[in-house]
User: What shape does this take?
Amino acid sequence: MTNRKNKLWLISLTAVMCIFLAVSFLAGCKTTAETKAAAETTAAETKAAETKAAETKAPETTAAVLKFEGQSLLISGSTTLLEVSNSWAEAFMAKFGGEVTVNGGGSGVGIADLINKANDLGNASRQIKDEEVEEAKAAGVEVKEFIVLYDGIAVIVSKNIDLAKITIEQLSDIYTGKITNWSEVGGPDAEIVAAGRDSSSGTGEYFLERVVQLNKTIKDNDYGDVVLRLQSNADVAGQVADNDNCIGYISLGYLESVSGKANTVGVMAEGAADAVMPTLETVLAKTYPISRDLYVYANSNNMSEIAQAFVDFMLSEEGQQVGADSGFVGVK
Assistant: This one.
């Protein structure tokens, strides 16, 4: 009798445990299924949110890229700024759209075009003159000036001329025609061939005032008749690189183009003990004696949105890096 009771008790206990395990298993399966379903729902919701965000962001990016689509901008002037302006234009159009056209002609041409309302922005490697400002006012143009880069004017000589340094005074005498032989400045016994820029060039005007006229202290000084007056930095660089016994001056941004083809000469300022070579560092530190600002001029009475955006781009970190990559010194 006792054994029978024990067997019944064991059977009952076993049945209860089986029921408990079955319930637990089913509950575990349900929990796992619910967890998996919740995870899948969360993942789906996250993906949907990301897709929505991407769809929302895409039109904004497209709008930014195409902000000036259909608008145009015309820039003219300084040949010193010609190549870097083309680089700015390409980067700007890739980022914002629009059509940016850059022409050379010289600083005088760029400023004249601005006065005549023939361009949107005028590039200049010299500062605008007082008489040009007055002429602009008479034409209803309110000139707005932007300093966009710093530059140095490098003195270069032909490869056959071994000259380490030269003074401002000696340069003045060469370009006025007082010094005509290299032996007078420590070079070989050979006639000097001097190359300069033409009258429309801001670089030529700056060199005239700073060097030939010794900082405007001798205003009667002018380029001698024998000086070759060329249209661009590239022309001067080519003249010096391709011929013997030449001297010329070019923008710092064009110095790399004559590397290995011409010699760069250190320049001694008036009363200085040492010559200074034209480099990014010496131009930035203002220790190189033939350094200058580079300008862009606009008409503030009629400055379009794309013109203002282009100026902002030139002065931005990205734009200034473009200037540095072109061999100039950034203003920031």
Observations:
- The CA atoms of residues 79 and 104 lie 5 Å apart.
- The longest strand covers residues 143-158.
- The radius of gyration is 36 Å.
